[in-house]
Amino acid sequence: MRVFQPAMRISLLWCCAGLLLGIVVLIQLKLEQHSGGRIAKLEQLRLLPRGEVLRPALLGYHHVGADFLWLRVVQVLGDRVVRDQDYEWLYHALDVITTLDPKYVYAYEAGGTVLAELAARVDLSNQLLEKGLAPNPNSWQIPFKLGFNHFFHLNNYRRAADYLAQAARVPGEFPIGPPLYTARLAARLYAQGNNPDVALEFLAGMLDQTTDEKIRGQLMRRIKRVSLERDLQMLERAVQQFVETRDTRPPSLAKLVEAGLLAQIPHEPYGGEYRLDSATGDVTSSTHSERMRVYRSSDSMASEGDPE
Amino acid sequence: MIARILSISLNSFRENLREKLLYNLLIFALLMIGSSILLSRITIGDYHRLILDIGLASINLFGVLIAIFVGIGLVSKEIDRKTIYTIVSKPIPRYAFLLGKYFGLVITLLANTAVMVLGLLVVLYVMDVPITGLFFQSIGLIFLELMVITAVALLFSTFTSSTLSAIFTLGIYVIGHMSGDLKELAKKLDEISQAIINVVYYVLPNLERFNLKGHVIHGLDFGASDMALTISYGLTYAGLLLLLAGIIFQRRDFQ
Amino acid sequence: MATSTIILKTEALRKTFKVGFWGRQVTALEGLDLEVRQGEVFGFLGPNGAGKTTTLKILMGLIYPTSGQAWLFGKPIGDRDSKARLGFLPESPYFYDYLTGAEFLRFYGDLFGLSVSVVNRRIGELLELVGMTHARDLQLRKFSKGMLQRIGIAQALINDPELVVLDEPMSGLDPIGRKEIRDLILRLKEEGKTIFFSSHILHDAEMLCDRVSILVKGRLVAMGRVSDLIGADSTHSIEVLVEGLGSDGLAQVKPLTEKVTVTGDRALLILKGQQSVNEVLERIRTAKAKLISLTPHNSSLEDLFIRQVREQRGEE
Lengths: 308, 255, 316
Ligand SMILES: Nc1ncnc2c1ncn2[C@@H]1O[C@H](COP(=O)(O)OP(=O)(O)OP(=O)(O)O)[C@@H](O)[C@H]1O
Ligand SMILES: [Mg+2]
Fold this sequence. Notes:
With 308 residues, chain A is an all-alpha fold. Helices cover 63% and strands 2% of the residues of chain A. In chain A, a hairpin with a 6-residue loop joins β1 and β2 (283-285). Chain C contains 11 helices and 14 strands. Chain C has helices at residues 52-59, 80-84, 101-111, 116-129, 145-156, 175-190, 202-208, 226-232, 246-253, 277-286, 301-315; strands spanning 6-19, 24-37, 41-45, 67-72, 75-76, 86-89, 163-167, 194-199, 211-216, 219-225, 237-243, 257-263, 266-271, 290-297. In chain C, α3 (101-111) crosses α4 (116-129). Chains in contact: A-B, A-C, B-C. Chain A binds chain B through residues 2, 5, 10, 13-14, 16-17, 20-21, 23-25, 27-28, 30-31, 34, 36-37, 39-41, 43-44, 47, 68, 71-72, 74-75, 78-79, and chain B through 49, 180-181, 184-185, 187-188, 201-203, 206, 208-209, 214-215, 217-218, 220, 222-223, 225-226, 229-230, 232-233, 236-237, 239-240, 243-244, 246-247, 250-251. Adenosine-5'-triphosphate (ATP) binds next to β1, β2 and α1 of chain C.
């Protein structure tokens, strides 16, 4: 201890400093309860100048600018409850980010997914992803996502298959290159776009690439629903075969197994059961009465609403 | 004592006025503010926004530059040039010297900001841009931010060289504007990173709190209670920094 | 005696500096004990790097001692009331060079909390005192080194201090400047002030100081009245130069001298002490020789200083 410094006074001062720090933190906490800042942040994103204007203004730091804006977007997204009409700003912000850094693959990919799955704006999602195709010829994720959009949201199997084929052509091993099943999926899409098995494989692939919990939940719900459809179609085919071979309708689903047409009756994914109307031969689920029309007729390309 | 602190402040102010850097920055700021008129001629659409945007940003940026680059020299220059020897041997406590230097720069910044604001007001008037109360609120908070940054620079300059002080202060300035975003992002990280970022967020100055530029441009209201809280935040924080600087300075040997 | 009040005192003052990246310890002061009495001129002497400036910095509260204590006016250093009674001139001073002479002094007057009228009066007096009236409105950056030293002294006197502490007040000054500073110090002493100054210009110290101390490598090696320090081991010698002494005369004086050197007609006699001077002069007169000069050689502070420094260095 130095001789000329009253130790008491110094420690008292340190206490004061601690006290002030406490006050500072308290005020911060209090300010946080007022959410003014968050609205301002959203407003800033909404009114962001166009990327072409912003880019020169960043004096060569446009990559950092893109990163910074991306952080902002992620943050505002995390705060917000989905409101359908309120996603124009998101598209605008993503557009600015990808203009600042056209090779920001993750921004296209994640942004495209959020726009399509959470915002239900497939049009904007596709617009963004299409923009990313040219500057990123080595990204399989962008065409893969486009394929997904065309398949599930637009029911355009042909375009979906084209995009998947493009994704499959990207060289390299997963995860640099596309997953192995991409090529097979593309081939199957060309052949039988309305087969629920194809849809399920596509969904499983998509699920593999997604980490965001909200979107994974969405995908899993879709998988369940398509599984139900697949089961119903399988059961219907067995009933059909039964009728063709025995010229009589099966009295119950169990008879199909006995006849060797099915290995077993599948579990209904929602915990219900499958029922057979022995008078008409129709198979239904106890939980869902609606059928997914997309997968009914073998050559339909009609986009009749959401498959869910 | 206050008279003595004031005479140190005024001496420091006089010294700052001789800094060429100051005038260069000031002229540059005024040029930028003026150039927004030109820019607004060649843009289509909302030129009010553009002028306010560039004007407020210039005032902020050049204020920060002055605060940092003059602030880091406040104490270290006196020690390097040994002018502090004759002051500390006088019957004034060391903290009074520190406060004197601090307020000297604050006065300098006040004068500078006043000139820049005046320039901007002229431009706004000429271009028929409506001037709101929010505009002055925003200027006030910019000035508060400058006070906090000056205190940061002063704190560093009590124990490191000018160069290191400049780097540290710039670092604090950048982090101070990003810590809010970092905190939000941290929600996606593991516990330890979250804890670290939370400490950074609450302990380092959150300079984004003083940023009302978005409010001004988009005409968003900033309530009186928010304003009061933000002001007390800035003043308390500056006080904390000055206290720490005082404690360190008190223990220091002048070699 | 009123003058024996102790105005400045240090006790076992030690200071070590940490140098370099690894914090190697350098000892600048090793247990310094000093006492300066009221009204005296005290010379704080020592070779370069002895620790003089370090001591003064501790006394002025610029650095803290590693251990030991010091008092000014009977109060531990750092006390604000004592600082108000103090004037300090740092070593090779640097000042606010954008101020004019008058502004500069006013600034320090304000730091002491002096009233405007007092400051104005003091500025006039002090500029006069240090012979700088012409530089009243000149900026300090246009000052020469000697002018800076003078304005620095004026600054140290602005509060009419009882104790004036000067670190190397004569350094950088020409002989005339040094004489003026010497006169100034004597004038201050007449006004009853105590002056404590460091120096390695021994001649000045010898003429001015009531007491001196000699510091070598952070240790005090001597302290006391100049006359006492020199007298303690004085070996006075006297040189006598004569012409035309002749071999007879030479033989006459030789037993009384320590050494004789003959060059042509002249002879240089070196005598041991005062005692034999009269006898020698008597014999020179009887030999009808011509006395050319007689120079008494006092052992000076310089001899003492050099001897002490040598001894101290030899020890290590
Ligand atoms: N800040 C410092 N850091 C490290 N060592 C120091 C420092 N200041 C002084 N010293 C050392 O302490 C010793 C005493 O230095 P000081 O300046 O007191 O000497 P001085 O007697 O004033 O010499 P001079 O006559 O040259 O002015 C020297 O050896 C010096 O190297
Ligand atoms: Mg020295």
